[in-house]
Amino acid sequence: MTDFLNDELKLQQKTKPRNVFLAFLLSLILPGLGQVYIGQFKKGILFFALYLLNPLLFGISRGATHFYGFVILFLIELIIRVYIIADAITNAKKQKFYIPKIYNAWYYQLSVAILMVIMLWVYDTKSILGIQSFHIPTPSNQPTIQIGDRLIADMQAYKNSRPNYGDIVVFKKENDQIYTFRIVGLPNDTLSIVDNIVTINGKRSKSSFIRQTMSDEFQVSEFVEEFPTGQKHTIYKSKQPFYSTKSTINDIVVPANNYYVLGDNRDNAADSRYDGFVDKNEILGRVVYSYWGKTKDRINIDFRNK
User: Angle at the Cα of 40 (from 36 to 41), degrees rounded to 5?
Assistant: First the structure.
């Protein structure tokens, strides 16, 4: 009887119940690490791999380049994270008589955590998904893009194709500043701008007046501009242009491998009229849709049709 009690005491001394809060915290920080902590090493690695697999599948399918694909990606990611955390908490509660294994040593778990962090660092989700989010702080592209809009750009849009008239592109100049403007001129085009309306290779764009309105506390006229190639978009022209010399420019020849861009808010945009042509190597991607803004009507706007 005494031997039995001694064995029982020794067993209790070896037992170290899993801390539920710690299991929750580790799972919250790194998916699967909570499972490693509670002794379910293989499950933890499997959950971590599952967490990495989701964006990979969406990257291959290019699903996140569409708004609803982006929403589904977010929901799946959320469900996976919640499930992993809930699983760690539930199983930690069951480990009241847990005897630590070799991989429960703090240095072992720290090594696993470091490896996970390295994998997440190498596993660049933005590059895998092929998209990037941008926040708009200026009125340069009103009315198409509003201040406060949060946009998704397809960073692989021009991997197998070239920018075209009307595309709203994201590009980076030498000062590392990110810009978003609309392409109005392709390489070797001859452009003219007359009263802020573009003429491409001798063919003037059509313009139709819509209304008088306000932009950034300035009175503007809203027009629909239609390029000779058929792309339509809405623009603003100020009643009193900031620089009247920029609203009419004749015979701009776009160099090879360069593009000419304008803001839709024609009198309030630091575009190619001020900063020059955009080299093809400076173009990062194409704006495809919005997922947030100051008002709910700014959600899910497809800028490929704007």
Answer: 55
The distance from CA 218 to its chain's CA centroid, rounded to whole angstroms, is: 31
d(CA 27, CA 19): 12
Give the per-residue pLDDT at 3. Answer: 46
Domain ranges of the chain: 2-129, 131-305
> What stretches of the chain show up as alpha helix (H) in DSSP?
2-14, 20-29, 33-37, 41-61, 67-94, 106-122, 125-129, 272-275
**From CA 241, how far away is CA 220, in angstroms rounded?**
9
Is the overall model pTM greater than 0.90, yes or no?
Answer: no
Instruction: Classify residue 275 by burial, with Cβ atoms within 10 Å: 0-12, 13-18, 19+.
Output: middle
CA distance 118 to 120: 5
The CATH code of the domain at 131-305 is 2.10.109.10
